[in-house]
Amino acid sequence: MHIRAFATLLSLAGVVLGATSSSTSGTSSTRSSGGAGGLRSTQLSTASIASATTTSTVIPTATSSAARVSATAAPVALNDSMPVRTQLNVTGARGAFFTFNTTADVPIYISMSLCSGPEIPAYNTSNSTLLDELGLNALQARRATLVGMFVSEKSSIVRPGPWSNLPSKQIAYAQGGWASIVLEKGSKNGIWIGIWPPIDAREAFGMFSVQIAASTKAQMEQVATRQGVLLDDTDSSRALLTSFNYTNHAPNISLMVLPTEGPFSLSSITYYNSSFCAIFDLWNTFNASMHALHINSSDTTRHTASVLTRESELLKYLRPEDAPSISAPTATGSAGLKDPLEERGIDMYKRANSSAPHGGGRNKTHDHQQRRMQFEVSGLQRGTNYTAYLVSSVMQNGIITRRLYPSVKFVTKKSTVCRLLYNVPFCPELAYAIPFNEEMSMTHALSEINGMISANFANFSATLSTFPCDSQEFGMYSSVATCTDCVRAYQNWLCAVAIPRCTDVVDPLESAASQDGKDLEGLPMDTNVHLYPYIVNRIGQNSSRQPYIDRLFNPGPYGELLPCLTVCEMVTRSCPPLIKWSCPIWTVTAQRDYGTFADANSLGLGYGANGGAGDDGMRFGGWPSVYVATDAFGHSYCNAMDTDRILRIEVGAARTLVPRVWLTAAAAAALSLLYIY
Length: 677
Known about the structure:
InterPro entries: MID1/Yam8 (IPR024338). This protein is α+β, with helices and mostly antiparallel strands and 677 residues long.
């Protein structure tokens, strides 16, 4: 009979992450040791340009400070907030044991992680025939292949294990290589901890390196359930990734990037993907190798919004200094605890928007521009898969506490034709690779494109200026959009069609886009069930969407990842009827010039269609789960130009932030830990 051992929290090696003062340039650099169918356009006012401020982050470079102990013979006493490591035989008949002296009414946070060892494949728990053969239910089968952690509060059980008949809150299994148990009321007699190998090793053998820590000060490690970092794009040697939003000072966050395969990768992307010590150990080793990467970080306002705040007593419990009680976990048993701050933050928006008091004094209002931290990773190998991990660090009660966000996978491009471009003043939402010939002058090319965009936008601005955007006498043309939204939507559309997003050439049979438009007959079309990207191959002279691309860049063959249809539709819904904007119909001509989200319907719009995120919500890697333009596996389906984020906010309006809301200043500080895409 097999009972799987399962994961909940882990103790990291004591490596300090976080922001430090930057170099004179202000940008952090870390390195390891070694009308619609046609072009209309844009003259952007400086007020609408998202300027990037700079910050810096420090990537951890120290090795684990955890002491090495042997805990299989006699229990080892743990010191408060001091991690230790021990060895555990995968097929052994005994566990590793620890003690921790505490007092009643003081919460105890115990964490455990697997730093190294073999992978034990999980059973397919949806196979009822297999479960019958094993004589297990699905839960038992899941736990059968995992390392287990058992905590006893009784002096009569000093070597707790699977047979100890403990309450469920005192048992956890290392799913993803990470497990934790929280005893909210502490223990007057101290506690005894047992770490046991999987009951079913499935023919695996060897030793696990296990790290464990107990603390009465704070939860030393947490695993977030929401994505903390998103992929913008890659070229053949670089990648651009962006963090969650924040409104105040930049949080202490660091990005680690590892090859998905090879000697510097996790031995199992699933068995260890939530293990702090496994990821940190590999990162430190990778940093000391000749393959070390270079990571630059800076602030950006790309894909963000302004937030209005009030200084009031409302929701004052969400101040950053209140974070320990807010972020304390309330459940054990699986990696990836639901962040209570997320739930309270969501509720905060509802109440702040409906009941925030008006007036002066402590209710003085402030306008905060949200920001993100962007990471440019260079030194990558062409056509190679990588996995990125974001970790945040906070000093709490004298110790470093860390949060690990779900990983993001990406692959660099094979072709050198594509070059990553971002921080473009006249296209502030642009952050992707563009077709480019290294022999050409990027400065000259962008200067010419800027002139073209500015000239075209002048016509649009002239038309829009005839509409009384700010007139109360004529009333609002929309309850959800303003002329500012109209300008931004048009600007994003213009940039998307004027500057194509470059990717590798693909087999036309593996693209959901129409290569020449001849197959578009206006008839109903199936959804993109194969989840192919919307890529049109641009091969040969004058094959680009815009003739000047070939003239200015002379890139050679490349694939264009088409703009999402919603980039065009966002102009329709954001602008006054005066503009007379219209977009092509999906089944007629749109699929030659536009793509759509992976979960769009047969009309190229909507969300949650085409199978959605799947029964387990993990079809796209967990997040995003709706309006999916780029998933957590690094697959890009169309070029969204921020429309995906805007639409996700709207469909979650009852539970997430809208672009501009009233918040208390204290709540805004708490938003530094919340993120919205």
